[in-house]
Amino acid sequence: MLSLELSRISVSYPGLLSPVLDIPSLAIAAGSRIAVTGASGSGKSTLVSILTGLERCAAGGSIRWGDADIAGMSERGRDRWRGAHIGLIMQDFHLFPGLSAVDNILLPARLSRAMKPGDPDRALMLLYAVGLCRADQKIETMSRGEMQRVAIARALLRKPGVLIADEPTASLDSESGDAVARLLIDLSVSNESTLIVVSHDPRLTGQLDRRITLSAGRVASDRAHREKAA
Amino acid sequence: MTRFILADLRRLWAGSLVIVLLIAFATALGVAVTLQERALRLGSARAADRFDLVVGAPGSETQLLLSSVFLQPSPLPLMPGNVLGKLAADPRVAWAAPVGFGDSFSGYPIVGTSTALTTNLSALKEGRVFSKAGEAVIGAGVTLPLGYEVKPTHGLAALGGETHTELAYRITGRMAATGTSWDRAILVPIQSVWNLHGMGGHADEHDHAAEAHHAEDPGHEDHAGGHGHGHVDPDAPLDENWTAEAPGLPAILVKPKTIADAYKLRQDYRGNGTLAVFPGEVLTNLYATLGDAKRVLSAVAVGAQILVAAAVLMVTVMHIGQRRRQIGALRAFGAPQSAVLAIVWLELFILIALGILFGFAIGYGAAMMLSAMFSGESGIVLPVGFIRDDLKSVAAIVLFSAMLALAPALLAYRQSPAAALRA
Ligand SMILES: Nc1ncnc2c1ncn2[C@@H]1O[C@H](COP(=O)(O)OP(=O)(O)OP(=O)(O)O)[C@@H](O)[C@H]1O
Ligand SMILES: [Mg+2]
């Protein structure tokens, strides 16, 4: 579990008058489950990129996960840190076609040479946990709901301290959406990960502890939910 | 990682195949041109190597070489017949053999010569050397059986020469392969050639002059029917005591006893109605004058190499475009730069290396085929082979593509993964 402290975060693009993301400070406690919502274009995906180090923020900002400030890391350093600490689930999965479900789950660990002896078994266990049983099925033959589950299993393989998902249910029908939402919450609990989910989906956001709403790159509201049954 | 690369290549197999073929053909062109040019140079040099010294009448050295060594029909002036006797008796000469052209049989040149040549050029593989006017020895590349009767055609049959009816040569022996044009020759006693063309020992001065004068026409068609064909007795014994009255000769092949003798003989037989040449030297001069042709070939080869480089570059650029998202995704999931570099580099380099490998195989095959075709037609063996320097050019090409293949992966680190994923 990792806690987060953001300070003086600002992201601007040339040609735009105001920054697409402007957050003077924000703190998230370790182990909490956060929903991020907001209108389209309000900067949610940009926030995810900043939190995961996929994008740099303007000089002076700091992104402190636990003891590490990833704003000060090099590109390569951030890649490495992300692989070890963040389970990332993106809206369009970014799974690798041509490989089987289980190979996709293991690929990041393999490429980072961070495979542990138990990992293949853990991959099968995770696959089972997300409700898939054909480990050798090629990824491109799977339905979108199944692909999203593989993506979740992949994100969890290295027991990340944080699980971050960008619109994980957006491209799924309501039934698979519900299932994926439940999975994310259950698995983040059982894996003891901090969970940050970007979503418009009330069935998903309604189950989380705290909801941050963005508007034009700023935090418009930040509310703790009623105590939910964990 | 290997699995990832293989899966990727399999997924994009059609594009990969095109890339491999593109590079393969460009490489093959360069390889074939280089190999063929070298084979031609080596092969002709080796073919000329068998003949130390050629003596002919003053005229073009190149033509003397082409006619006597490579048996290309070309108009040669004649030198006086007594030169042969003089050379044969010279103590510095191991052997000297006359060469007389004019007839052919189904595309094989019939060359009049003496037993000095048939016994010395190479060992006999089967049969025996001719011993009568109506007998012949064939080169290793002549596909006729021993005992076969060869009816000479005046000039080249392809040019519509008439067939001699006065004499048929019976094949009595076959020589071992020499790798020269002589492998395709039918060797007969030169007396028979002289007699057949009415130039017997008591030389007909008029015909002799005509022969020399119209020498630019190896087929002699212009006086076909007009020139007196002498009667030849196929059982007449050989007479190789060359007298001063021997008819004019286009060329004499000479084997000097020592190198020093060779230089002295060449000195002595330049001027006074004769021209002595070292075939190797003439060939060298020939290559020098053919320098332009060679430059054209080299330009083609260089062009092909540029084509390879362009192909590799194009492939790289395409690769960068295709891979940006994939590289972004790999990075997003924490793949270290070394792994990303290795994947992108290997995928591209495997394709390029495969292309180059196939290219060399295709180029080598093409050069072999061309050489085989050329050997079949000329008898000259063109040795197709790689030399040590080829390794250097291969290394250069491979190094160049290896560096180029790094570009997509290195460029990928100039942008954030987020930007790459948006691509
Ligand atoms: N590279 C860029 N150049 C210019 N503007 C950009 C760039 N990337 C993002 N933006 C802008 O930043 C703003 C925020 O984008 P972002 O993707 O974070 O929105 P979002 O909240 O995720 O929206 P959605 O709900 O549609 O996914 C948008 O207005 C977008 O146009
Ligand atoms: Mg978004």
Number of E-type strands of chain A:
10
Average pLDDT figure of chain B: 79
Strand share of the residues of chain A?
15-25%
Q: What portion of the residues of chain B fall into strands of 2 or more residues?
A: 5-15%
Say which CATH homologous superfamily of chain A is assigned. Answer: P-loop containing nucleotide triphosphate hydrolases
Question: Which oligomeric state applies?
Answer: heterodimer
CATH fold topology of chain A: Rossmann fold
Task: Please tell me the overall pLDDT of chain A.
Answer: 89
Radius of gyration of chain A: 17 Å
Please state the CA-atom Rg of chain B, rounded to the nearest Å.
31 Å
- The CATH class label of chain A is Alpha Beta
Provide a brief overview of the structure.
Chain A contains 7 helices and 10 strands. Chain A is α/β, with parallel strands linked by helices and 230 residues long.
Fold and architecture overview:
- The complex is a heterodimer of chains A (230) and B (423).
- By secondary structure, chain A is an alpha/beta fold.
- Chain A has a single domain, classed as P-loop containing nucleotide triphosphate hydrolases (Rossmann fold, 3-Layer(aba) Sandwich).
- Chain A is built from 7 helices and 10 strands.
- In chain A, the strands form 2 sheets. Chain A has a 6-stranded mixed sheet, sandwiched between helices. Chain A has a 4-stranded antiparallel sheet with strand order 2-1-4-5, with helices on one face.
- Chain A is globular and about 50 Å long.
- The two termini of chain A are 17 Å apart.
- In chain A, 46% of the residues are buried.
- Chain B is of the alpha+beta class and 423 residues long.
- Chain B folds into 2 domains: 181 residues, no CATH class; 225 residues, no CATH class.
- Chain B has 13 helices and 11 strands.
- In chain B, strands 1, 2, 3, 4, 5, 6, 7, 8, 9, 10 and 11 form an 11-stranded mixed sheet that branches.
- Chain B starts with a helix and ends with a helix.
- In chain B, 43% of the residues are buried.
- About 7% of the residues of chain B have low confidence.
- The chains are: A alpha/beta (230), B alpha+beta (423).
- At the A-B interface, helix 2 and helix 3 of A face helix 1, helix 10, helix 11 and helix 13 of B.
- The complex binds adenosine-5'-triphosphate and magnesium ion.
- Magnesium ion binds next to helix 1 of chain A.
